[in-house]
């Protein structure tokens, strides 16, 4: 995982997920989790971007 991805995971989780996976279910889940709370969005972004 690059430094840019780590910074985006923390600051803008949906953008980081979009850059890695494009538009799809993963992005929608990231947006919903970020709206519910910033921390769940960050955790989801790290999990999704760290696995591939």
Short description:
With 52 residues, this protein is mainly α. The protein has 4 helices and no strands.
Notes on the protein architecture:
- The protein is mainly alpha-helical and 52 residues long.
- The chain has one domain (6-51).
- 85% of the residues lie in helices and 0% in strands.
- The chain has helices spanning 3-11, 13-21, 25-36, 38-51.
- Helix 1 packs across helix 2, helix 2 packs antiparallel against helix 3 (25-36) and helix 3 (25-36) runs antiparallel to helix 4.
- The relative contact order is 0.21.
- Belongs to the UPF0057 (PMP3) family.
Write the layout of secondary structure elements.
Blueprint: H1 3-11, H2 13-21, H3 25-36, H4 38-51
Attribute tags:
single chain, 52 residues, mainly alpha, 4 helices, 0% strand, globular, YqaE/Pmp3 family membrane protein
């Amino acid at each position: 995982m690059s430094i840019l991805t780590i910074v985006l995971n923390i600051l803008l989780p949906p953008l980081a997920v979009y850059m890695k996976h494009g538009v799809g279910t993963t992005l929608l889940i990231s947006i919903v989790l970020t709206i519910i709370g910033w921390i769940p969005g960050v955790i989801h972004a790290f999990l999704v971007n760290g696995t591939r």
